[in-house]
Amino acid sequence: MTAAESTSERRYHHTSSAYVLPNDAIEQNRLDAQAVAIVEMTGGVPCLAPIRSMTNVTKAVDVGCGTGVATLQIAGIFPSAKVYGLDISLIPEAVRKVAPANIVWAVGNVLDVDHDKPGDDVMSREIFTSGGLDYIFGRAEQSGLSTRAGTDAAPIMKDAGLEIISVQTFEFPFVPSRKTPNSQTMSEYVQAKLVPNYLELLRKMLGPQGITGDELERLTMGSFRDITSEEGLHQKYTVTIARKP
After folding, report:
1. Alpha-helix residue ranges (DSSP H) falling in the chain
2. pLDDT at residue 214, as a whole number
3. Residue in 229, 231, 237 with CA at minimum distance from that of residue 179
4. How do the domains of the chain map onto residue ranges?
């Protein structure tokens, strides 16, 4: 079971996960807004893989499902499949109440799965069974984040024996830009929902490194200035799709 701890007026995951963002109602609202913005940015579809043409799908897993938005969509596409929504925090009760019967919600950290030492939790028993899924584990960096994960996914998948179907790159903008019309909702989301969370995000990331007080405030203000400094400023958002040969 995942408990929670409250720090600096926000509630956080009480787990060993390196994930630094909160898990309270404010964060759930941000995740919902982010899901809508990502769908618009990627062309209006929740998943870029050709899943609607897939047949005989019996199991699907949404790893890091957040508030369960995408899990509900996947369950609707595959009504005959058992669809698992996995996250390190409980899914909001309102979502659990409207979820179809083919969804199973699970609480756990995917990085804790060890096939050499299987546990008695739902991840080992049902989700990540031997031969049950093809997946890639990425070792998190110090803060649980990797700036190279998206770009590096294709060669890692290829080395694992998968066939690369497509690699698509999108612009995740920090400010509205005429150059990226499909990302207007994303830029509005960043300014309204993400930027206001930067202070708390940087506090959690930099605090363990001894950066607090005036130094933390200086770096935070510098971050605010840099990410809103010019039109077209963005980060890469890469989607890599692969399958068994």
Report:
1. 25-41, 69-77, 93-98, 122, 149-159, 184-189, 198-206, 213-227
2. 92
3. 231
4. 25-139, 181-229
d(CA 87, CA 4): 14
- Cβ proximity of 183 and 158 under 8 Å: no
For residue 199 the two structure tokens come to 């202070």
- Average pLDDT value for the chain: 79
Q: What is the DSSP letter of 138?
A: -
The architecture CATH gives domain 25-139: 3-Layer(aba) Sandwich (3.40)
**How far from chain centre, in Å, is Cα 223?**
22
User: Poorest-confidence range of 53-57, 74-78, 100-104, 159-163?
Assistant: 53-57
At which residue do the structure tokens 């804790």 appear? 112
Write the DSSP symbol of residue 67. Answer: T
3-state SS assignment for residue 89: coil
Q: Name the phi and psi angles at 6, rounded to 5.
A: -105, 125
Q: pTM, whole model, 2 decimals?
A: 0.68
At position 168, the amino acid (one-letter code) is Q
- Neighbouring-strand partners of residue 187: none
Answer whether residue 18 shows pLDDT above 70: no
pLDDT of residue 138: 34
The DSSP secondary-structure symbol of 123 reads: I
Phi–psi pair at 101, nearest 5 degrees: -70, -20
* pLDDT number for residue 152: 81
Main-chain phi, psi angles of 118, to 5 degrees = -60, 140
The answer to whether the beta carbons of residues 239 and 48 sit under 8 Å apart is yes
